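If your schedule permits, I should be very grateful for your opinion on a structural question. What I wish to show you is a protein chain and, alongside it, a tokenised description of its three-dimensional fold. Would you kindly read the sequence against the tokens and tell me how you understand this chain to fold? Here, with my thanks, is the record as I have it:

===
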Amino acid sequence: MPDSQAGSAGTGTAATESPTASNGGQGTGTAPADERRFRIYTAIVLAVGLLAAAVVSMWLPFEGSVHLWWIGPLLALSFLGAEQLGVNVDVRSGISWTISFTEIPLVIGFFVAPFEVVLAAHVVAGVTTLLARKVTGRVLYNAGAFLIEVTSAFAVAGLVKNAIGGTEHMPWVAALAGTLTAPLASTLLAMAAVRVLRRRMRVGTVLRLAGRILVVGFVNASVGLTGYLVISKTPEAWPIVLAVSLGLAALYWAYSDLLREQRDMEALSDVSLMVARSGQQAAARPASRADEIGEDIDFGEWVTIAERIKDQLAARRVVLRLRLEPDEPMRAVVGGEDLPAGLVRPDDPLLRLPGAHVRHFRITEANPEVRAALQDRGSQEALVVPLRSANQLLGVVEAHDRLSRWRGFGKYDVQLLGTMASHLATALDNRRLLATLRHDAYHDPLTGLLNRPGFRQVARDPLRERPHCVVLRVDLDVFSTVSDALGYAWADRMVMAAGRRIRDALGKDVPLARLEGASFAALIVDRTPEQAHAAAERLRDLLSAPYPVDRLTVEANAMVGYAAATADDGQAGQAIDVDSLLQRADVAVRATRGGEEVRGYVPSMGQIFLRRFQMVTQFRQALEDGQVSVHYQPKVSLPGKQVVGVEALVRWQHPEFGRVDPDEFVPAVEAAGLVGVLTSFVLEMALDRVRRWLDEGLRISVAVNLSVRNLADEDFPAKVADALARFGVPAELLTFELTESGVMADPARALPILRELHGLGIVLAVDDFGTGYSSLAYLRQLPVDQVKIDKSFVLGMGTDLSDLAVVRSIVELGHSLGLTVVAEGVEEDVARDQLEAMGCDVAQGYLISRPLSEERLEAWLLARTARSRGHHAETVLTLLT
């Protein structure tokens, strides 16, 4: 018989769902409108049932024996027993089909009792079953449904009886037809109730359900009818009838177990997929600063999961308690009836779960503490199981009050909930792991701010939706200095402090990222360039304030560049490129090196860096096409004025940009990692030139400049040795010039390379001496043969006594260490004479010659030098005066 339980019916019928509706994602409860409609529907069903019973009782007089007064109580007990032996099979979420045996006493009732007795027995048994199951809210509806079932059954039986000629007793065909009418009537009432409650059920599901009901009803009715006919004719045959009935019941139970296992597996799969899909949907959402582990849970999705577990267990309520963070309290998600207000107490005994197994609490068997907790929940019994992963409590699942069976939760329910909790814990753990990986992929581990990919993702939507967006790029120029002086731990502390300052200044809703080192980027929206400049100024002032790190106070300077989106950036419906704005802001930061510490991007800046980019990308091709050449600047000895060597200087004649200054393209080539290619090219050209001079009998050395990146190449000495061997040039005719700062940038790596080069016999010279460390200890540490006085001091000797004193000191220092002293930047005779008087060894500068191409150098040597034989039978070139 149909009752109001979520998933219980009698006489092989489908029951209505509990009239529940979502209440905002925090649980479910009875919707007021649905409740009112169901009350009206209950009144209609009850009224129709009473009216139909009165009509049928007058139409169908009883033809059996009225002296069998005990038939009524016996039928009532038979109906009650058939109800309790029902087998529940889930049809869909919230609706189940109960295979019961009430057709057997019903079909027998057609032959042994009047309509009123059968009706009373059926109603009494059905209502008693509902009250025993504590289902009191739908008694009137079910009483009306019981009346309509039995009334329609007797009405159809009477019609069939009259149609076949009206025999003295009820014919078996009429009894069978009437019995099959009862479950069909119950099904129609249940489907109508589903519609009243605004639930949906597919037509195909309804037809399949009706077909199954007819099949089961026919089998049950046939067994009852056959048993009655056999026993009435042959009383001693009742053991056979009983055996057949027991066999049929066994088949039903076996079929029920198979279907239950199938439905349990489907439920396990559904729950795991729901959790996994919700995790994937969370992972697909853009990263944000508030996107911490667990905070991306959509509780609407978890209500659906709770409802699915509730339906599978046929429980009145399922509560999922989820712990988002280890130190946070659990948050409850309810499927089914709402929890009473004020739950749950911190010391709730139902949540003290030391193990990982399902615990079954019954109010009739519990101690006072547990009984009070169940009463707080308004429940008679509860299944509670923790969700654990690696000894970590992720949550708790509670199921309250089994509705589909009179005896409450059984061992199958305990097993199902335990397995489901294990799957749910695994899915939750995987989701948390995915959230952790996603967080780490989009956030900087040191500061917790976004990283570059995270900033790119977060900025995409604002750039698409807002017309005025500005990207700020902030660089602290003290990071490398602090790292070298105090170590990376102190530098990291400064970075974290700077990140906090930027966050406090811009607010928590502004996307903020740490790009690398001490570089940050922020996206501010709805700002004009003027407002962005003012914000950048305030930010620079804030970041330039001293940083108290432990007991130290570190001075810092900040440079801020910003780039605003222009009208051309969002044309053709395309989103503004985040990387383009970051690149422009970076260009603006680089432009601050000129003095201003806050700069906005302008297109002319982009042209400069575009030119550098083109030069870097075209450099290799330029070498192959002959655009890059080597010029040579002569060096002469003092006071003899013999040409002792040349310095090889690289030149680039670009087809588009014309002559490119080395100060422009060499740093760009070095930053792009192509300095090794450049050094190899110059070395090859220089050694080839020396080889040809040797073939002419001239012994002229060549100097090649080295980069700090050359000194980081462990294979560089071997490459140089190979080049010397290929060209047959003595090592002493090759000089490598290197700057003080280049060596001291990483002395631990540079000094072994220099010692290896010096061991080959190559001359090493310190270039631009006097502008860097310039100490006696420094010179004694390096394996060098020459020092070159920086031209800034040589040019100022004639007018600045301090420059003259510096030059004299360098000459004396070099000679005291046994080094050759070379002065570059000699442009006047006075300077040459002063250097000669000081004892300087070699002079180089425009007074002697500008850097010359190879052809012009040959012409210069022929025109300005005299050739003579030296004591080594080699040609010596002496400058003509």
Q: What stands out?
A: The longest strand covers residues 643-654. The chain has four domains: 21-233, 269-442, 452-601, 618-871. Confidence is low (pLDDT under 50) at residues 1-30, 90-95, 289-297. The domain at 452-601 is CATH 3.30.70.270 (Alpha-Beta Plaits).
